[in-house]
Amino acid sequence: MRDLIESNYPDIAVHIPIIEQLAVDFHEYKRANHLYDFDDIISQVVRHLKTNDTFRQLLQSQYRYIMVDEYQDTNIPQKQLIDLICEPESVSLMVVGDDNQSIYAFRGANYENILLFGETYPHAKLIKLEQNYRSSPSVLNYINALSAQITLGYQKQLYSDAPIEGHKPVFRRLSDEPKEAGYITDKIVALKSEYDYNDFAVLCRTSFQSNYVQLEFMARNIPFIVVGGIKFIERRHIKDVLAFVKILYNPNDTIAWHRILTLFKGVGAVTATRLTQAITTDNNAFESLLAAPFAKKSDQLEPLYHALAKAQQAESVETAIGHILEFYTPVLKLIEENWRERTEDFRVLKNLATEHTTLDSFLENLALDPPNDSVAVMGNLDNGQDSSNDKVTISTIHSAKGLEWPVVFVNSLVDGITPHHRSLDDFEALEEERKLFYVACSRAKTQLYLTAPNYFSSYSGYFDKPSRFIAELSADEVTVETTRRTMIEDDDPIWW
């Protein structure tokens, strides 16, 4: 941990002793309360597979075939888990993945797992799936040119049997970010007669790079959704609702109790701790919420008691969630200005609740397979458009992986933004940035637009060169829309 912070986050290095102590306290708390976090689920199984032959043989006897999808996104503990179950070749293993789409190193994925798979399993057969059923030949030509720039990986040449060649990707630089947003909007308006709004996507390296696009869309009454940024299960209001569910499932969950109780004005950390202790001491009885010493702290505690009691007696998970939201929504309205936008996410929770018959399966599903992202809906919903479907998608590139659209815009293609300035001096980090751009471009089916402002200025610096991912490719691969073009001495093009 110390090495990671000192190398990647030096600005918080002064807090290393506190962080290390927090890690120790966290693990001790888990042991004392018989709790596992997500990492423990894998690491503890790996530990037992290594040390308990009977357990490993029992597991191996239950499975003859194992398939792992998105293998390029696996981390080291996940690889250990797979290898231990499959050795010594007692179980047949097939993995599926694309090394060019290994873009999750920031959350622990190790691209070497797929690159070195043949060394771990020397008898494995490599099957390349090079026929592409998504993109037009012209878009594929550009994608193949990008792939050729990736240093480490399996060589592959994608092809399509599509009868129509299609449009070459277009690159355009604009004077600034508002002009870039205006260009994207103008293109969508011009193409709208050929496509629906949901055929368009704007993909950004990071979520804040879509701010001007969102403003332009709102000014032009173009409906859109925003995907990405804070993950669905990490948003404050979703965590709050799940804390209620956790209490219904396990009234001894002190962390969930503390989160809920501190929502209410008059209940601070000390009162929340004392009330939580009273509840757990009194055999996890909700009645402690009504006790005189605590009830006078907040007039929300009695309604909380009744809401929990109704939810506890609910006949279905869906009904229980309904009781919780009925109580929580007015609370959210008091603490968040954008509460209406946030309540859009509750529809996702309600839909998920209908798929489960027990609270534990509902919580387990959210922990192991949460919805990809929070979705915020914007735009003119009263213009006769289908408010449930016909909207332009604005998304981070990471959130767009696995998706596709006929027309894709990739913006902010300035060196220092794409690729990110922190990756420029690190070979592996720069390779992942290159793969991220590859993922963005390969989302396009028929038309791909690449845009960049002439400069980008922030606290991180001033960036004014086009992305190297654009500049390093031949100009034959892309149509350049520009007001001026200059050439440097070695005849490499720079677009202004």
Q: How many strands?
A: 14
**How many helical elements?**
22
How is the main sheet built? 8 strands, mixed
Low-confidence stretches: 379-386, 485-496
Instruction: Output the strand order for the largest sheet.
Output: 6-5-7-4-8-9-3-12
**Rg, Cα atoms, Å:** 26 Å
Strand content: 5-15%
Terminal-residue CA separation:
44 Å
Proportion of helical residues: 40-55%
Shape: globular
The average pLDDT value, as a whole number, equals 85
Helix and strand content put the structural class at alpha/beta
Structural notes for this entry:
- The protein has 496 residues and is of the alpha/beta class.
- It is 44% helix and 12% strand.
- The chain is built from 22 helices and 14 strands.
- The strands form 4 sheets. An 8-stranded mixed beta sheet has the order 6-5-7-4-8-9-3-12.
- Helix 8 (137-148) runs antiparallel to helix 21 and helix 11 (236-249) packs across helix 12.
- It is globular.
- It starts with a helix and ends with a strand.
Which short descriptors sum up this protein?
496 residues, alpha/beta, eight-stranded mixed beta sheet, 22 helices
Brief rundown of the structure:
The chain is 44% helix and 12% strand. The chain has 496 residues and is of the alpha/beta class.
